[in-house]
Amino acid sequence: MDYKNASLSPKQRTEDLLKRMTAEEKIGQLVQPFGWKTYTKNEDNTIEVTDEFKAQIAQGGIGSLYGTLRADPWTEVTLENGLSPKEGAEAINTIQRYVLENSRLGIPILFGEECSHGHMAIGATVFPVPLTIGSTWNTELYREMCRAVAAETRSQGGAATYSPVLDVVRDPRWGRTEETFGEDPHLVAEFAVASIQGLQGERLDGEDSLLATLKHFVAYGASEGGRNGAPVHMGLRELHEVDLHPFKKAVEAGAMSVMPAYNEIDGVPCTNNKYLLHDVLREQWGFDGFIITDCGAINMLVSGHNTAATGEEAAAQALKAGIDMEMSGTMFRTYLLKALEAGLVTEEELDLAAGRVLEMKFRLGLFDRPYTDPERAEQIIGSQAHADLARQVAAEGVILLKNEGATLPLRADIGKIAVIGPNANTPYNQLGDYTSPQAPGQIVTVLEGIRSRFGDDADHRVLYAPGCRIKGDSREGFAYALECASQADVVVMAIGGSSARDFGEGTIDLRTGASVVTEHSWSDMECGEGIDRATLQLMGVQLELVQEIHKLGKPVVVVYINGRPITEPWIDEHAHAIVEAWYPGQEGGHAIADILFGDVNPSGRLTVSIPKEVGQLPVNYNAKRTRGKRYLETDLEPRYPFGYGLSYTRFEYSNLTVEPAVIPVDGETTVRIDVTNAGDREGAEVVQLYISDLAASVTRPEKALKGFRKIRLGAGETRTVSFTIGREQLELIGMDLKPVVEPGEFRIMVGPDSTRGETASLRVQE
Fold it and tell me: Quick one: pLDDT at residue 518?
């Protein structure tokens, strides 16, 4: 049988296998049930496949399993009933072995896992969320992180992941803002390319490589009102220039899987949008991987979008538009054969989809190397090297927003520190959504990170009080918080938000800070998937707590831990220092302490503009010149602009040159600028290049990011940074919806953020 011959190409093996398959077996390859429901755990921690799973294999097979190792409140997989890294790998082998030995053709399962900011399995490393990662402006570091995530996941048998998230966020009230890299298409595209290189490695069948899945295709971050899955109102020009751009760059980098978004665009759901899934993705871009839906997306065609009256119609619409696999698997498994028999789809269309899935399995090496090594999984997953990497990513992603009177860094010989707030010592609050249960001691909180600085003196010099919760109006913890703060020389306020699901951790005694296990735990979740907000203010009585602490006259350092921007003008005006950490992951406490005490000079920069108030939205920096006039109550400028962030040193820019200053439409020029560390300590600067097209055939943004470099300079050091500008940086989507470089004048700006920098001119001519 040629499909078992490893010397043949994946395409040849696929063609041979398809000829041997029944329609039921082909459909089986297109379905992806929930993997954690396919087994039961025995008392000795081994697993057995369920009778239902055995029946599905006997009835035509299954192509893929979703989240077999995923653990969280949704799956109801806990530390107690879940699997360790080694046990998880053994479980994957058990399931795979059953399929290979009990199916007619022996087609292996493709195991898909969630890896937004780390493998979502028990014991795996929890890295910072993508919003923190984007704030590093360090694509090389992110590529290294992706290699670590791929190694952990593949070592357990996971071969595909549902990341990276390439949504360009427009309205930060959206609960999934934390899963994005930011508001700019160029920045998102750069991280997209890094993720593909990191996750997929040099070859897909490598032992540390994962099939990356680009999501959510497309414009999911531009939904109406920032509501998850709401309609998107966008023209094709903006769609191509902004939201499609990161996906295009990722496809060019070799991405082999794409997931359509839940939303509709101009009345057409992404799940059955043939223009997007076929015309653009395959015909224009040359994508030759496979397309998998989001969970339950085909169901929405019948109930939600209502573009189909029956399940058969919905399954047919999806398949004909280009869908190759259904996450959850219920609609294809139930209705696709009926649609085939009714003539709603053809055998050729079914073969095309099944063939794409099978060819990817061959490319991944699953037919030739279907099992994994449990011993290796035990060594790699959650390793110290990966924890160290998580700490570095978190530290580089922390943004210093304000530092009045050089409040930071804190002196090593400072007397007492009061660490106060609901995010001071609540582990899950600093991890973000899509997180697995964590063993005690696995997460380093802000309190623990600061305490670790003082050794045996920590109990005496570091005081702690939660003060209040993220949500709720209880002030019963205020008195104890004020008592602690009154004894301190400086107060660190750890406040913000939470994307923590209910992991059964109980609640906090606001009077003592102790964890209290109750029958019904308190949920502080105000961010994450499906948790959208109408405002961006702090919830509960957090602002009031900060105001009461401030009255003591102590230096107040606010540390925000959250998944979306916070708008609190009073804090912006009154706090002595403000640090934005987003969700910094398992090593976040150490990373924040490194910043607060100056072991690490802050180098994070904003990738989302932070408005003064929610009524200004949208406030993205690359708005059109024709965005309208100011509001009666306020202007259109953000509180903190895109690209902004402070350092403990000072950088100066000089000698900007553009040579040549006149180029043809297909030409290139080089931009150079000198950057000097004018301070007295080493630091890293993010040098940002923006381009303005001064006159064009269609309206343009006032400016657009087209390049960035993160450089490290010693005190007094100067370095020349160069950028190449060519067609890719200068083109726009013209009147015919095709990319074009138009002759004319361009303004080049290079500086520390989107509002400041040295400027020069560039002329493009025929």
Answer: 65
Arithmetic mean of pLDDT over the chain: 97
Residue 331 has pLDDT above 90, yes or no: yes
Under CATH, what is the fold of the domain 651-765?
A: Immunoglobulin-like (2.60.40)
Please determine, for residue 530, whether its predicted confidence score (pLDDT) is greater than 80.
yes
Cis check: omega of the bond before 409, within 30 degrees of 0: yes
The string of pLDDT tens digits covering residues 188-247 is: 999 999 999 999 999 999 999 999 999 999 999 999 999 999 999 999 999 999 999 999
Among 558, 583, 563, 550, CA closest to 495: 558
For the chain, the structural domain boundaries read 398-616, 651-765
CATH number of 398-616: 3.40.50.1700
Give SS3 for 325. strand
Q: What average pLDDT does the segment 171-196 reach?
A: 98
The tokens for 349 are: 């269309």
Burial 403-418 (b: 16+ CB within 10 A, else e): beeebbbbeeeeebbb
Length, in residues, of the chain: 766
DSSP for 606-622, written as a single string: -SSPBPSSGGG----TT
Cα(69)–Cα(280) distance, integer angstroms = 34
Our separate counts of H helices and E strands in the chain read 24, 30
pLDDT in tens, 565-580: 999 999 999 999 999 9
Token pair for 69: 């190792």
pLDDT at 383: 98
Look up 294 and say whether it is catalytic.
Answer: yes
DSSP string over 243-311: IHHHHHHHHHTT--EEEE-SSEETTEEGGG-HIIIIIIIIIIT---SEEBPPTTHHHHHHTTS---SSH
Strand partners, 213: 257
pLDDT digits (tens, 9 = 90+) for 438-454: 999 999 999 999 999 99
Strands 507-508 and 669-677: unpaired
For residue 534, how many other CB atoms are within 10 A of its CB? 10
| Catalytic member of 72, 171, 184, 294 | 294
Nearest to 316 by CA among 282, 358, 274: 274
